[in-house]
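Recall from the previous lesson that a structure prediction takes nothing but the amino acid sequence as input. Here we apply that procedure to Macrolide transport system ATP-binding/permease protein from Candidatus Magasanikbacteria bacterium GW2011_GWA2_45_39. The sequence below is the only information supplied.
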Amino acid sequence: KKADIDALRVPGVMPHLVAATGYVKGVDTVRAGEKIEDVTFTGVEAQFPVVEDVRIGEGRFFDETEEKNNARVIVLGSQVKQDLFNDAPAVGEMVKLKRESFKVVGVMEPRGERAFQNYDTQVFVTLVTAQKVLLGINHISLARLKIDSAENVDEAQELVKSVLRARHNITKKDQDDFSVRSQLDALRIFTTATDALKLFLAAIAALALLVGGIGIMNIMLIAVQERIKEIGLKKAVGATNRAIMQQFLIETVVITIAAGMIGIVLGAGISGVVALVARGLGYQWQYIISWNSIIAALGMSAAIGLIFGLYPARHAARLEPVEALRYE
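The prediction returns the following C-alpha cells.
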C-alpha cells in the first residue's frame, strides 16, 4: 500500500533512498472536445519524474500538495497530446478520463519505448486519484525506488524487505507476501535468458549449416557421377589431380556463396518489412544492415563450400582416366 512507501521515506529508515513512487494502472478513453483516444492511465506520486528520469516538455508535473489534496490534474504523454491537441497548447486545457474532468498541467517530452514501457502513449494522474476515483482500490501494483548509487542497491533491498516484513507482521522469509527486485536482478535474468537464447539459436544455425553442407556434398557427388567421362577426358589430355580437385572445389564455393547472397537478400528484405510493420504499430524499431554480418555470412558460406566440397572434389580427382572413359 501507499503507507508502505511512506514508511520507507521516513528519515533514517533508508539512508540511500533518493526518491520513491507507487504505481497503479488502468485502461480507458481520454476525451478532449470531440477527440477521443484509448490510453493507459497510470497513477503515480510526485517523485515519479525523479525515479524514472523523465522530462517535462510543456508545463510541469503535479506536486505533493496536489497529490495530498486529491487534485484532478493530469500529465499527458507526448503522443497523447499530439493526438488530442495536435500542435495547439495543451497545458491549462480540460480533458475527461472515466467521465472525470482533469486539468492538463504538463506534457512529457518524447521518450520512446524503454523496457517495454512507452510513456508517450500514457497519461499520468496522482496515485490517490487513480486509486480512489478511477479504480476504486486501496493497494498499489508496484513501487519503484531510486537509490543514490549501484553499490548501495543490495543494502537497500535488504532494508526494504526488513521494513515490509515488520509492517506486514512477517517473521519468516518464506512467508513474504511481496517481492523485491532491482534493475541489476532484472539485468541478470535478462542476460541469462539472452545467453540461453543465443545458445539455442547457435545450435539451430549449426544444425542448418550441417544439413545444408550435407546437401551440397550430395549435389556435388551427383555432379561428379554425371561428369565422369568429362573428368576422364581431362585427365587423359594432361589435367592433374590437383587441377580436377580445384575445379570442383571452386564450383562448390561458388554455389554456396550464391546461396548465401540469396539468403542475405531475403533476410534483409524480410527484416525491412518487419521493421516497417513495427513502425506502423508504433514501435521504434531500427532497420540496420551490418556490413560485418554480410561479410561474415559470405565467409561462412565459402567455408561450408570448402569443407563439404572437399570429399566430392577428392573423389573426382582420384578417378582413373581409363576407367572414367569406359564409364557408361
